Amino acid sequence: MATIKNSLRGLYVDELRDLYSAEKQLTKALPKMAKAATSEELRNGFTEHLEQTRGHVERLEQIFEALDERSGGKKCAGMEGLIEEGSEVIGDDFEGDVMDSALIGAAQRVEHYEIAAYGTVCAFAKVLGETEHLKLLQQTLDEEKQTDEKLTELSQEINVAANDQSSDEPSPPSRKPGRAA
């Protein structure tokens, strides 16, 4: 007989722990992203998603309780890397709308990661017959997709403004052919 560790249920619990770690890391990163945003709408979006993310953590805790499993014990390396990249963006010398465009890019990478991860655990929950878990996980998946859509909509305006901001900056001096820099 397969052990719990070497079973779909064991994999499901492992993936849920990974997601739990990811969401907990995100609750620490979103306030920093909100602080770095120059667009009030983007800042508010990050703040709203922080509250949503706290709800995602609570849903996962409900599932762990129902499974009689502990939530901790795993560090999500994927989210850690995405957050590190986002922190690098914040530390870069981008300003104004260009910074906001960079933040949106970092946030969308996070959302796409979460969409993939929640899609996976939804599929596992369905096969395992965990219909109550599936409802909670699907609700989170839907919210992640909505956040990604909001970021895409917001990026359209901000990216144009970032391009205009870049166009206003003086161009580097042109070089004549044949001359060394």
Describe the fold and architecture.
The longest helix is centred in the C-terminal third of the chain and has 38 residues, at 131-168. The protein has 181 residues and is mainly alpha-helical. Helices cover 79% and strands 0% of the residues.
Question: Which characteristics define this entry?
Answer:
181 residues; mainly alpha; Ferritin; elongated
Task: Supply the number of helical segments.
Answer: 5
Order of helices and strands: HHHHH
- Overall number of domains: 1
Helix fraction? over 70%
- Termini separation (Å)? 70 Å
CATH fold group = Ferritin
Radius of gyration: 20 Å
Shape, per Cα inertia axes:
elongated
DSSP summary, beta strand count: 0
Unreliable segments of 5+ consecutive residues: 170-181
Q: Give the rounded overall mean pLDDT.
A: 90
CATH class term: Mainly Alpha
Kindly name the structural category. Answer: mainly alpha
Sheet having the most strands: none
Give the full name of the CATH homologous superfamily.
Answer: Ferritin, core subunit, four-helix bundle
* CATH-derived architecture: Up-down Bundle
Percent strand equals: under 5%
Topology record:
Blueprint: H1 8-36, H2 40-67, H3 77-91, H4 96-128, H5 131-168
In short:
With 181 residues, the protein is mainly α.
